[in-house]
Every structure is written in C-alpha cells, then in structure tokens.
Amino acid sequence: MQLDKAPFSFNSFLRSRKRRELNIWNKKENQDEMSVLEPKSRRVFDLQKKDAVHISLKYAPFFIAFWAVLYLSIVRTQVDRLPKPLYRVDEHSNPESFIAERAEITLINLTSIGPRVVGSVANEVKALKFLLNEIEKIQMESSDYFKFDVDIQEATGNYVHWSMINMYQSIQNVIVKLSAKNSSSGNYVLINSHYDTVPSSPGAGDDGSMVAIMLEVMRVICKSKGPLEHPIVFLFNGAEENPLQASHAFITQHKWAKNCKALINLDAAGNGGREILFQSGPQHSWLMKYYRQVPHPFATCSAEEIFQAGLIPSDTDFRIFRDFGGVPGYDMAFVTNGYVYHTEHDKINVMPKGSLQHTGDNVLTLAKCLGNAQELNDIVQHSDGHVVFFDFLGNFIIFYTENVGIIINIIVCVIAIIAIGISLYVMAADSAISLKSIFSRFGASFAVQVAALAVGGGLALLNALFMDAIGSAMSWYSQKWMFAGLYFCPLFFGMGMLPACYLEKSRKDRLFLGFRIQLLMHSHCLFLVAVTIVLTYFRIRSAYLLMMAVLFYALALIINLTAKCYRSVYRFGLIMVICQILPFLYYTSLTHIIYDAMVPMAGRSSSSSNPEIFMCGIAIFVTILFAGFIIPLLLFFRKARVLFSAFLIVALIFIIIASTPLGFPYRAKTAAQRYALIHAHRIIHDADKTTRVEESGIYVFPQDRNVKILDENTKSIGQKHMVSDYCAKEMFCGMPFYNHRWYKARDFSFWIPIEEDPYIPGEAPRLVLLSSNQLVDPFQINYEFELSGPDHMTIFIDLTDQGRIVNWSLNETMLTENWQSPYFIYFSWGKTGTALKFTIIVEKTLETFDKPILEIGIGGHWTHAQKIRPKKYQEFVNSLPDYSTLTDWVATYESWIF
After folding, report:
1. Looking at 666-816, which runs of residues are DSSP E strands?
2. Cα 199 to Cα 346: distance, rounded to the nearest angstrom
3. Which residues does UniProt call coiled coil (predicted)?
4. pLDDT for 26-55, tens place per residue?
5. Which CATH class name applies to 88-385?
6. β-strands 780-788, 750-754: how paired?
C-alpha cells in the first residue's frame, strides 16, 4: 500500500520547532518563573525566537572591514593632516598670516651652523650672532606701533635637577621684549624656545624649528598695527639641553622675569607632524579659552598626565618656569618622527613646510590672544584648578575644569547604571522570568566579561614577555603595523572567545541570544563605570576617556529602550554601531597618536625595562575602550568561535614574522638604532696619593633593549664588563657618568678596557686643594678647592669613612634635605670658563680625624670637539651597521681622597 505524502510547509516546520523549544524551556525553568500567564509567555517567546536568528558568518568580514575603513579613511587622514603652507608670494594677500616658507629659510640658515652645543663657538658666537641679525631685520620692518628692547643675558647659577645639582656658568640668552609704544602694562607674555642642540645633531626639529617659528611670529606681529595690550617677551634660550639651565637663569635672575604672567613653551621630541599641547596651566583653565581659538587644535590632558608621571624620557623648560617662577601657560612640542630626535638625522629636509605652518598659525593666534588677555592683570584671581582638555581629530577642542569633570563623570556613570537597571527589568518582563533570575544571569555575564578582559590582556602580556625572551623585542619599531597582530589580535581573541564559549554553553537558556549578548555589553559598561569612579576618586583627569565610552553606550542603550529596538538583533546592533562610531574614531586616533610618539621613544629609553610590556599595556587600555562594545557584536554571527579563532591564527603568524629577519626592528636613517659611546681615560688615586687604577676604555651607554646586538662588534676591541661590577668598589662606579641618567642605567651599561688612549683635545680637568683649615669646632675641617677644565664636567663627592659633610658652597638642598651620599654635580659653562671655586666642610670623628676621608672625582667631557679617533677605535666605529646612529665623544675621570 502506498501512502500519499503531505506537502512540506516551512512555516509549519518553524511553528513545530518553536513549540518543541518552548516545551523544553518550560520544563527547565523554576516554578516561580512558570507563574507568568501562559498566553503572554507564548507571545513573548515567539517574538524573541523570531529575532534570535544568528547572522551568517560570511557577513562578519564586512563588519570588520567597516571599522577598518573608518580608521584608514578618517583617522589616518585626519591625524596626519597638515595645513597648506603659505609662501612669500602669498604674503601680499595674507599680510597678517604666518608664512611657512620664511620660517623654513630661517631654519635652513640656522641649521647650516651645525650642532650648537653649549660652550662651542657655534652656540656661543655664531648662533647668537645669527639671532641678533634676524632680530635686527625684523626690527627694521616693524611698524611704528611697536618698540623693541633687546637684551643678551649672561648668567651663572645652580639648582637641583632630579637627583643631581645642576650648575652653570656664563650661559647666554637672547631676549626680545616687544611692546606697544602706548602700553603701560607690567604683565608680559613669555614665548620660549632653545637654539642649542645635543652633540652631533643639527637640531632642525629640536629646537631650531621652534626658533624659526618664533622669529616669523615676531615678524608678523611687528608688521601689524596691534592691538597689543601686554608686552611679549621672546626668549631665545641658549642652554636647554644641559639640561634646562638657561630657562632657570632667565626666570630666577632676569629683570623681566617677574613680569611674565603667561607662557608659551615650544620644544620638540621629533621632527615634523603636528605640535601637541601636552601640558597646560597648571590651575588655570582660562588658558584653554584662548587655545580654543587656534586654527589647528591638537591637545589632550592624558598626554600631560603621562608626561608628568615620568613615562617619557624627556623634560622641558615648562617645568622650570612653573616650579621656579609660578608662570602658567602652554607646553607644546613636535612628537612625530621621533626617530631622528637627538641624532645627526634631525635635518631640515625631513621637516615639512606644513608642520611649520601648523605650529606657526597656532602660536601666532595664542600670542595675539594672550597679548590682549584681561586675565594677565590678575592671574591669581583666575586660578581655578586643573582642566580636562582634548581635541577631536584636530577639528575642535573640548575643555572643562577638573571639578566639573568629576561631576560629569559621576552623572554619566549614574545614568548608565540606571539605564542598565531598566534594561534588566525589561529583559525580565519580556522574557517572562523573575528579576532575581535576570540578576543571576547578569552576575554570571559580568564574571565572564571580566574574565574575558583578563584572558585577552593576559595573552597579550604573555606574548610581550615571549617576544623579549626570544630576543625579538621591538619588531614594531620601524613597522608599527606589527602591533595589530602581536597585541591587538590576541586581545580580540581573548575578549571574544570566552564569551562565545559561554553563549554556546548556555544556548538552551530561556533568555534569548540578543538579551544574553546585551548582558555581556552591560557588564563591560559596568566594568568601565567602576574604573571611571576609581580614577575620578584619585582625581586622574584621564578618567574622561572611560567616561566617554560609558556615555556613548548609555546613549545607545537609552535609544534602544525608548524605541524598543532591544528585541531586534538588527535594529539593536545598528543603533549600537552608529553610537560607537564617534568614540571609535576618537579612541583609534588617540591610539595612533600615542604609538606615533611612544614607539620612537623606545629607541632611547635604555635597556632597563622591557618596552614590549609598555606597548602591550597601551594596546590593552585602548582596546578595552574602542573595541569593548564592538567585540560583543561579533557574537551575533554564526560560528563566532571560528571568527575569533581567526584572530589567534593571525597573532601566531605575526609572532612568526617578528621572530624572523622580517621582524628586524631597525632601518637606516629612518628608524636607526642609537649608540652612545665615550672613549675615556680614568685614574683613581688611593688616600696615600698612589694610583690604584689607570686605564682607557670605551663606555657604552645603552639606548634600547637590543643592546646585545653590539656584542659581535665589541669583541674586536676588548672584553665587555658590566659597569655595575665596579660600583661596589668605587664611588659612582669610578666612571665618567655624563649625567644622573647614565648612573641610573649602570646595571645595563658596560665598559670595555682598550689599550688606546683617547685623544684629549684640551686641558684635562684640574682640581687643586687651595686650603684645608680646622674650624672652631675641633672636628670640622674646611676644604677649599679650585676646578678648571672643559665646558662640560661632572663632580662626584663622597666620604670613604665615618664622618659627614655639614656644609658646602654648592647648592645646599642635598644637605638640608639629608640626601644620601655620594653626591652628583653637573657643571657646564658657556661663553667663558673661569675656574670654579668651592668649599666643603667635613665633620670627622675621633677615629677618622687624622685620616683622608673626603673623596672627589672629576669627569671631563669634550662633547663638541673635533673627533680624532685612534685606529682601533675608528675601526670599531666603522664596523657598526648602517642602521645605527652614533653619538660619541672623549672624556676623562680622575678621583682623589683628601
């Protein structure tokens, strides 16, 4: 017998499948959840299951590509955007505009002098003459509205800088006061940049570019007819690299210093790009009111907090003006192309005209604004606290006071918590389950989300440790795209795979897929709320970054709740995507900026720390912000675990690339590896005046993590010894440390004894004991010394036995604050080098009264002399790879016990 087949009905199949699933769920739920009316339950579940369909995996690449296109088409173009430079032919139609071509010509002429090291003829004579000639030309073009006062400061002084005394003698500043002839204001605006450079560098970016910009700004203002209520002081600083000596000389000694009420400090940690405002104030939010008027804003208080936390291996004159003069203002600097910073590659040919135009337009605007700012009449009255500030893709600036920021953070967090609470209530009502049950699920989702963040971050950190352990650190140094695979892909994998597995395991849950994914997103928002509150409590202004993520998610959630789109996968996802576009653009632009600045800095941060961990930490932080609400949207796609596994595969591929020659970090000129070498001769005397140590060698100060690359080259000249091996026996290791940073890197620096003595281009440092007299106190002896030598010297002071230094003629801070010996003094002179006389009063004990216990070591450094290298050392220098850049000079070290 043959049966007739009934026609197949797809709708009937779906209805029967829903009935089966509904029966399974009804059996599974607790009794309290079954008390809901059956008709309503059936209607709700039918609606939920209708919208619980996964999206096909084939659309996932398009979803990911959408965000990639946003980054490439908007972020990359906006972040790297520079204004069109103006040329001299444009001056007629732009009479009061900054002309980039003029600034470029000035910069060419300045850098043609060559490296301008403090104490050199180039810095103390040629650069100074150049500046005076340029100022004279500007003065001749000036309108009758203005008057000029030009002064050359020559100063001597000292102060404590980090962990050393910083002493200077006869350093020079060129200072111009520009004022309206009818002005009676005693409140000045100070604009500062420095014309000196580090050894071997022509200093086009640091800081010749800013000197040229200041001269052009001065010229443009002078040709106008005002108005200018307050005088502007242009400080051309002659000793910043020493470090920060000339700014200290001006703010503590110059006749115009006390009148300076606002500051524009201009510096560079790179060459080109846009200058970033990375410090403002402090305590003066009104400054941002004027910065808002600049045509090309680029600023963030996060950079300020990073800088002030000491995470950047640099400092600027801003700190000197702030700490010693109480002058509020702006600290602005180039940070792009930091690869050439402080190297011979910092040349004019890599400085775009657009960068000069960008900074020139901004500085000109700020100079005019501050020159007419009423706040300068009483800046104390306008001191209203720190400020939160940031720009959006260089288009506009947002700022508010720190106290307002605290209120905003709290309000946004409260709104987000309320919105999440309402969403949970709606989920319970629409799913016909109790609030207790929904909160239980929310708790589980929160645990899963936090665990996912931990897994993603843990995988990225594990990779950072692994890359360093296998000797493949900094593979991203010249190819920043490596970050995508090395750190971001492991993060995406960890942040997505664990939730995907959780959803798969709970696929029979009565709560439909859309709601379960929303619970994960709510959990991420709650996590951000918690961190925001903690950062706000500690008054960390960068909390605004997390607040913004919470704000836009809360906005999307409110829209979904109001429009009842939370029931539909597609409408819910669309609203979430739309509301994530702006924060995604901001966070990825910030990521681009941070890596653009920080990656080159890894090449000069010494080898004491693993840069992989720092760069990985940045990736973790920004990924939580820009991808925390995007990764969960990928869970709507079918086979999400396959999708997240692809991220892991990409990460493995990048790890392989990084560990091969393809991941080699350096490139000649554009991303060179830095080497700092000193060919030194050192002599150490015992208390009986006999010579205990006398040898020559090469001191190697490591600049980055990959210092072992140099091992094969060093074998050709001698055996390498770690500098720290000498520290237990000798004061300051018996080495000619150039400054305190060299001493801090002693555990990773090395000394290579060689037979060739360095060619000393002048008189070696000479320390003479003029007298040693017993004071009224029978155990106190006053030692008087005289020191002469090159324009860069270091003085090391310690006691070899019981006793203490009770006073000296040097800066007294170390003694009054009971600093532990030994003491580090950096001493340099500029125009002239008269002998330095100083006294030290030592209090001895009965046991040590007849013993020499005062030890003094003197390091002499010839940082700008013509290099004459002995044959073997020259061969070693020639053997360095072409991807290296070298800074070297000769030095001496000699110590005595008195």
Report:
1. 673-685, 691-702, 721-722, 750-754, 766-774, 780-788, 792-799, 803-808
2. 12
3. none
4. 444 333 333 333 444 444 444 444 444 578
5. alpha beta
6. unpaired
Task: Please report the sign of the dihedral spanned by the C-alpha atoms of residue 638, residue 639, residue 640, residue 644.
Answer: negative
- Strands (E) located in 590-654: none
> How do residues 833-873 score in pLDDT, each as one tens digit?
999 999 999 999 999 999 999 999 999 999 999 999 999 99
803-808, strands of its sheet edge to edge: 766-774, 780-788, 836-844, 803-808
pTM for the model stands at 0.92
Residue of 72, 74, 64 lying closest to 577 (CA atoms): 64
Q: Which tokens in the block code for residue 159?
A: 């102060």
State how far the Cα of 59 lies from the Cα of 17, in Å rounded to an integer: 26
From 284, 107, 109, 312, select the one nearest 193 (Cα to Cα). 107
Cα separation, 235 vs 351, whole angstroms? 23
Structure tokens at 405: 């920021």
Beta strands in 259-393 (DSSP E): 260-268, 275-281, 329-334, 387-392
CB neighbours of residue 298 within 10 Å: 24
Pairing of strands 188-194, 232-237: parallel
Which of 11, 123, 76 has its CA nearest to residue 589?
A: 76
Domain ranges for the chain: 88-385, 407-472+480-660, 673-897
H or E element, residue 825: strand 823-829
The one-character DSSP state at 207 is: I
Calpha distance 439→785 (Å, rounded): 77
Kindly compute the dihedral angle of the four CA atoms of residues 410, 415, 417, 422, in this order, to the nearest 10 degrees. Answer: 170
Give 100's contacts (C-beta < 8 A, 6+ positions apart).
85, 86, 87, 353, 354, 356, 357, 360
Q: For the purposes of burial, counting CB atoms within 10 Å of the CB of 280, is it exposed (0-12), middle (13-18) or buried (19 or more)?
A: buried
Structure tokens at 165: 């005394």
Cα 305 to Cα 162, 302, 347, 539, 540, distances in angstroms: 18, 5, 30, 11, 8
Longest dimension (CA), the chain: 133
Pair of tokens at residue 213: 């910009």
pLDDT band at 712 (very low <50, low <70, confident <90, very high): confident
Among 701, 706, 699, 458, smallest CA distance to 602 is for 706
Tokens of 46: 């039918």
Which residues are bridge partners to 150 per DSSP? Answer: 176
Q: Are 340 and 205 in contact (CB under 8 A)?
A: yes
Looking at residue 707, its pLDDT comes to 87
For residues 179 and 77, the answer to whether their CB atoms sit within 8 Å is no
Among 801, 897, 881, which residue's Cα sits nearest to residue 849?
801
* Tens-place pLDDT, residues 329-354: 999 999 999 999 999 999 999 999 99
Query: What is the amino acid identity at position 226?
Result: G
CA distance 24 to 21: 5
Q: What is the model's pLDDT at position 401? A: 96
Query: What's the token pair of residue 485?
Result: 């695979």
Q: Strands 673-685 and 884-897: what pairing?
A: parallel
In angstroms, the CA 571 to CA 563 distance is: 10
DSSP state, 819? Answer: P
Distance CA 214, CA 194 (A): 10
State the pLDDT at residue 702. Answer: 87
Q: How far is CA 433 from the centre of its chain?
A: 51
What CA–CA distance (Å, rounded) separates 84 from 13? Answer: 65
Four-residue CA torsion sign, 722, 728, 734, 739? positive
* DSSP secondary structure of 229-267: SS-EEEEEES-STTTSHHHHHHHHH-TTGGGEEEEEEEE
Distance CA 15, CA 685 (A): 98
* pLDDT tens per residue, range 603-627: 998 878 899 999 999 999 999 999 9
Backbone phi and psi for residue 807, each to the nearest 5 degrees, phi listed first: -165, 160
Strands of 714-765 (E only): list them: 721-722, 750-754
